[in-house]
């Protein structure tokens, strides 16, 4: 039933969208046919949530698809220093509570993501022969990025800092491609394939992993 769409959300709940004329009985049949797949997805997401819950936010954080442990090294001149080779974040002292840990993580994610974009953007603007007038990062609930074609403005989701760096690059190229083709049509995906042939691998990583 191509007109019915199904999504298993991060909390395990199902989200079904369909045209008005589709009956409840048809939706039920659609779900029953995909019961095994639904169960597998719910179990996978539950396992990921359990792993995350077992990790205290005051002891470490997820960054670029890996877990970075916090390590206190007083005295320190900087608020924090990331050690990517050792997957650690050095701090003057560990966060005292969850609120302090969340503020610290948000700041690190924002700084790291902006630094990566500042590195990637000039390269891709040259390669694609496009130029943005403005870009920034912010918390986005349902999207990985957005592009205002008219104003040539790009926003990327702060959540990208949770995932491997190639995911950020893929979303950046995706939004830049909208400056060449506004719609998600055949030409758009042909351009994506020409600029970043392995973009679907990164897209799959975003779909198959989840973090809080």
Automatic annotation (TrEMBL):
<dbReference type="InterPro" id="IPR002725">
    <property type="entry name" value="YgjP-like_metallopeptidase"/>
</dbReference>
<feature type="domain" description="YgjP-like metallopeptidase">
    <location>
        <begin position="3"/>
        <end position="208"/>
    </location>
</feature>
<keyword id="KW-0482">Metalloprotease</keyword>
<keyword id="KW-0378">Hydrolase</keyword>
<protein>
    <submittedName>
        <fullName>Zinc metalloprotease</fullName>
    </submittedName>
</protein>
<keyword id="KW-0645">Protease</keyword>
<dbReference type="GO" id="GO:0008237">
    <property type="term" value="F:metallopeptidase activity"/>
</dbReference>
<dbReference type="InterPro" id="IPR053136">
    <property type="entry name" value="UTP_pyrophosphatase-like"/>
</dbReference>
<dbReference type="Pfam" id="PF01863">
    <property type="entry name" value="YgjP-like"/>
</dbReference>
């Amino acid at each position: 039933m191509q007109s019915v769409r199904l999504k298993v959300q991060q909390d395990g709940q199902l989200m079904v969208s369909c045209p008005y004329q589709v009956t409840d009985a048809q939706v039920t049949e659609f779900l029953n046919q995909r019961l095994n797949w639904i169960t597998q997805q719910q179990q996978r997401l539950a396992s990921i949530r359990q792993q995350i819950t077992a990790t205290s936010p005051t002891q470490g954080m997820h960054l670029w698809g890996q877990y970075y442990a916090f390590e206190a090294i007083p005295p320190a001149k900087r608020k924090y220093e990331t050690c990517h080779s050792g997957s650690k974040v050095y701090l003057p002292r560990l966060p005292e509570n969850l609120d302090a840990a969340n503020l610290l993580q948000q700041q690190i994610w924002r700084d790291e993501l902006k630094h990566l974009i500042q590195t990637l953007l000039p390269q891709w603007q040259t390669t694609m022969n496009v130029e943005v007038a403005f870009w920034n990062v912010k918390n986005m609930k349902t999207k990985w990025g957005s592009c205002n074609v008219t104003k040539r403005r790009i926003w990327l989701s702060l959540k990208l800092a949770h995932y491997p760096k190639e995911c950020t690059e893929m979303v950046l190229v995706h939004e830049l491609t909208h400056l060449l083709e506004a719609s998600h049509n055949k030409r758009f995906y042909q351009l994506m394939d020409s600029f970043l042939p392995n973009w679907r691998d990164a897209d799959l990583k975003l779909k198959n992993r989840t973090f809080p």
